[in-house]
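JOB MANIFEST
job_type = single_chain_structure
chain_count = 1
residues = 275
[input]
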Amino acid sequence: MNGRPTRRGAENSVPFDTLGLSVREVRLLLAGLDRPDPALFARLTRDPRPSVRRLGYGALRRGRSLAANEEIFRDGCIEFVAGADEAGRGALAGPLVAAAVMFAPGIVVRGVNDSKQLTPERREELYEVIIENAESVSVVFVDSGLIDRWGIQPVNMQALGGALAGIDDRCQCAICDHFALSGCAVPTFGIPKADETFQSVAAASIVAKVERDRVMMSLHGRFPRYNFEENKGYATEQHISALAAFGPCEVHRLTFSSVLPSDEMSLWEDAVAEE
């Protein structure tokens, strides 16, 4: 445990197994660092021990803004950092939308936070500010048919990767909310609660949510009986009642529970398997 952990490029570059450290040893390790190490942080925030996860987040967030947290990735030759997040993962209808956002060093968009903690009106306001101030923004849409065919997790990962692939080539490092991606052109860190911790990821969560909400508002005009204008495709009581009364429409995710009765779900799964 001597010396500072070395990264600098991937989560697996930490030269020792942090799971083998006691809580006290983790605390001492963090106290000895002059700044949080991204690879170490990514490991600690995924540790099965709640106390270790709290130490990891505490070391990063203490006295820092979301923009300042992101500065820990700008070390040495790293200047441009992107963040990625998705919206619509748990919805019963409509697309999955992934977004990636990259800011230049020193750019701070005040008020940016996890999109779930903002009102729709505030998200719309911040969306415009993000688009105006970001160096690069990329958005990927995946429709319900592909979600049914490939499954939500593979589609989610592909969408995040696609959003990052669409970011300006100057990007040198990326942060994803929760999911660790492989095969990206730049070092990528998957960190739980990244949308509450880093400015670019929070901005990506806002962009993805606003873009998806706009799609669902448009779909409401085509399928008004499901009230997508209000529920955005999620499983509200009214939405479930509409499904029971009218059945699913073409933008529903037929492999999701609550969309089809159990007997119809079985028939659908058989049909997909035959393909």
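[summary]
The chain has eleven helices and five strands.
Confidence is low (pLDDT under 50) at residues 1-15, 265-275.
exit_status = 0
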